[in-house]
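Quick log. Single chain, no ligands specified.
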Amino acid sequence: MQGTVLTDAGSPLPGVVVSDGLRVTRTDDDGRFRIDEVRGSVFVSRPAGWRADRWYVDATEVDPVFTLSPVPVRMPVRFAHLTDTHLGTGAGYPQPAEIGTGERLSRAFQEIAAAHPGLEAFVVTGDLTDRGLPEEFAAFVAATATTELTVHAIPGNHDHLVPEPTDLVSRNGYAIHSGEPRHYESFLGPRWYSFDLPGLHVVALDWFTHELGLDHETQDAWLRADLEALDPETPWIMLCHDQPWRSILDGLPRAPIATFSGHRHTSRVVSSGTTLHVNTPPAMFGGVDNSPATHRIVVWDGERISIDSQRTYPPRSDARPGRAGTEQARWTTTTPAVGQRTPFVVADGRVVVPVAIDDEARGALAAYDARSGEPLWQAGLDSPLRSAPVAAGTGAIISSTVSGTTRAHDPATGEMLWRRPTSDPLRRFGFYAPTLVDGLVLIGDQAALRALDQRTGETVWERSDIAPYQIFVTLSAPVVDPSGEAGSAPTVLWAGFPEPHTPVRLDPRTGETVPSTDTASTDGLFEVLTRGAGLPIRTPSLDPASGDLVATGLTSVFRRSASGSATRWSYPTSVPWNPVGVDLGSHGALVVDAGGAVAMLDPATGDQLWRTEIRADSDECFLTYRRSPHPLFARATRVGDRLLVPALDGDIVTLDARTGAALGRFATGVPVLAPLVVYDDTAIALHRDGRLVAYPLAALSGALS
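-> predicted structure:
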């Protein structure tokens, strides 16, 4: 193929990069280019300061002409990163699901552009559609036509779904599904390409077909050729549907300064080497890690990349302002970041708060005196902390960041006692608290679970064969059965969504699987999603009397055998992906239904002992595959025969644990996302605005027995 790149005035544009997705060339002084034996669509890498009338043509076109028009160059450059819009009906999810629509995406484009004048473009990193259907792609294209800004898109695994996808394990041990690029190219063009921003090169890949091995060699060859055509001093970033792994990054001429991805439906921003990896939650609905619907404003100032996370739904303009009402507080203090949904702990008279500062790719542990709120120490972490710290007696506070790096700190001083680096900084997504058993720390995921020595942090054992690497992040931690399977030494039980389907019992000393005669479930991912099978999505509780697991699943709370697949009972929740685990206690199995109720169940039969509806005028949504505000989010806290239930309108509701009767409602003014912690005669709350407040129990009507 021969073609030409011209200005809108008809002048030739020399030095413009043109490619067919394998070979890379530049236009000559006459703006001409030539590619022999064209592989596929031919595209121009749009230079900074130019807008193309079209940026790609079909391989069959004769003597194509690309016309570029000059546009103002602004520094710093800002673009909006969105991902996982999933335009569709949501028919394949536990109901009620609220995924993306063309109308919602159009509104988001318009509102984001209006809120951030001077944006250069939108970048949407895959799963544009939910099922890869023509009508879904048409809706996406129509939405892009409602904004004057350029929309740079890449495909995700959902954009390549076939009518009847099957589960498979990829060449890199990734448990995903089959697919093919049936419709994407006909609507949106090349699946990998590049373009330039002022002083910054941008590369976009098709991660899914690369992972499946359908075209990874072609993409790899093109990527290297594209980078080698650059000035070696030009920084570059990568757009990739999933967090790129070594299969993509190894062997490149030089590392990107940043990558932008989605796929996991999580918020995870980490630095690895010289690269900032930005994994963003879905733009249209809540993430699996209970992130709100999110987009990020990305700024390139010519030297560095910075990000600013923004809530998409409900829009920020709809959020109710306010500060926590502290008139009756025993004490109040301000933590280093906004209050998050991760639980904090009180250990040996110290409140230890996990801190996640995603926009700076860092975290911290911050400690305060539980009696006065006085700051005691702060330990900086090199990644955000989105799992609760745990106290190993009085000797250490142990935590694990989103990148999987685990640390122990001295509770009195915050001094780091030991640090165990993550086993894989690109693949570890750490969102659950460490499990402590017999002097060991268990941490990791289904593909890499390891045991560390509590005193030294040394690795005692590591398993990488429990299950393949998963699409969904692990939110269900291993639990300890103190009696063991046969009444002997403690064992560790692990079951979760989407794997392992049947609980796995491990010897904590060696990591070896305790033999079992049970047959493992063979349910596939799509089957599990559709029918909401009985797999824990939060860390289950262990019934000490029977050894059964009582857990929150996709659509219900259930009790199941810990040694097989038998389900004893199931209690439906009003919303799928309920974010709260089941709390077993003397009054029964306590269920907080984020849709607006608290219930107590008979743990043996699942019979409802009582159920109390709780309403709250909330502006918050942290539910997976949802964007509508909801009243409840955090666990209830037991105080004798009373329950303290934080609501997302900022109220603390007190219930009678025996009857469910409402005993009082205390207004604080700002939502509480994490469970309250009782210390002496106070209930300590971490508010959405970042304030840590100790309220006298006497002020919470009915809180005292």
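The CA atoms of residues 538 and 623 lie 13 Å apart.
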